[in-house]
Amino acid sequence: MPAYRHGRQTMKAADRIATRKSPGAGSVTPGDRSRLLLGLLIAVCLTAVPGCAFSRIFPRRKPDPLPRALTSDATLNDIMEHLNEQRSRVMSWRSTDVRIKASGEGIVAPKLTAALSVESPRNLRLMADSLRGLEVDFGSNDERFWYWMRAGSPKYLLTGSHAALSTYRNNPLPFPPSWLMEALGVIPIDPSGVQLLRDPATPDQVRLVSSYQLPGRSVQRIMLVDLALGEIVEHALYDDQDQLIASATLSNFRSVGQSALLPHRIDLQLPTSGQELNLTIGSIEVNPALTESTFQMTGYPNCEVVDLDQQLRGGSALR
Questions:
Q1: For strand 304-307 and strand 156-161, is the pairing parallel, antiparallel, or unpaired?
Q2: Which of 2, 95, 196, 202 is 20 to 30 A from 157, comparing alpha carbons?
Q3: CA gap 5, 248 in Å, rounded
Q4: Around 109, how many Cα atoms within 13 Å sit in the side-chain half-sphere?
Q5: Is the peptide bond before 215 cis (omega within 30 degrees of 0)?
Q6: How far from chain centre, in Å, is Cα 284?
Q7: Please, is 160 exposed, middle or buried when counting C-beta atoms within 10 Å of its C-beta (0-12, 13-18, 19+)?
Q8: Is the CB of residue 3 less than 8 Å from the CB of residue 247?
Q9: Alpha helices in 161-286 (DSSP H)
């Protein structure tokens, strides 16, 4: 069995000191000078003297711990029912406060800001920017998926249909859109064929193992569940040689709204392309009203559109 990793998880203070003018002559009074001096001393104390640190004077209140979701002896039915009940509360979510750190082969802009919108069952849009402008557009709707990257050479917009994706001999994407939607928590987990594996050394974690169909082959899907949290903290796909195809490690779970618990850190590993993406997510809006245009493919100037379905009909090497 391959090894598994887990994801990882300041307070800004600004002091403004204002001098006041006396209402009559417009000069600074002795009392004003005293208050100014006191303010300066406080500012120095807060920023330079550890014993007077702001956090010690006004300690931040730690959030209340989340109640335990599942017992360590929970059955497979208990776990699947809980996971899918949680997912039924989140049909969509959106964040315009995503920071991406990318590393690996072909990475030109290692740090990006992004907007991410997700909606069950197939709607997805990730648009990432750098100082140069838009760098990446990865999306999916009910019928098609697409991928565009500014740094691509030659420049092209890769697109195909979900219906034909299963017939491609070689998967042109680093991961299937359906797997990513599953990892993002907006579609239910199919319980059929799932096996539950326990490790006595980690009683609060279990693995859900099943087969997963990729274009032209069946692979192994492994989901690592934190029973105390009641959430999947890692999604991974492995080939028949136990080599990692792709993984998504989820961490920094926070309550969003009244009933949703969502990760604010997602680490994607893509060994086949030699890349790793770290997504740090700020504020999240749950079940927003998303328009159809959010999930429509966009054309880009001086960019060839490569339709995988047309290549398939023409006997492309993708078959």
A1: parallel
A2: 95
A3: 10
A4: 19
A5: no
A6: 11
A7: buried
A8: no
A9: 162-165, 177-183
Domain ranges of the chain: 76-313
Superfamily of domain 76-313: Lipoprotein localisation LolA/LolB/LppX (2.50.20.10)
94: tokens are 């959106």
Residue with tokens 């790793």, as numbered in its chain: 276
Q: Which amino acid is at 234?
A: E
Strands (E), 77-194: 92-104, 111-119, 123-130, 133-140, 144-149, 156-161
User: Residue 20 corresponds to which tokens in the numbers above?
Assistant: 């006041």
Q: pLDDT (tens digit, 0 to 9) for every residue of the chain, 319 residues total? A: 554 444 333 333 344 334 444 444 444 454 444 443 334 333 333 333 344 444 455 556 566 677 899 999 999 999 999 999 999 999 999 999 999 998 876 666 678 999 999 999 999 999 999 988 999 999 999 999 999 988 777 788 999 999 887 777 666 676 778 899 999 999 999 999 999 999 999 999 999 999 988 777 889 999 999 999 999 999 999 999 999 999 999 999 999 987 789 999 999 999 987 889 999 999 999 999 999 999 999 989 889 999 988 877 665 434 3
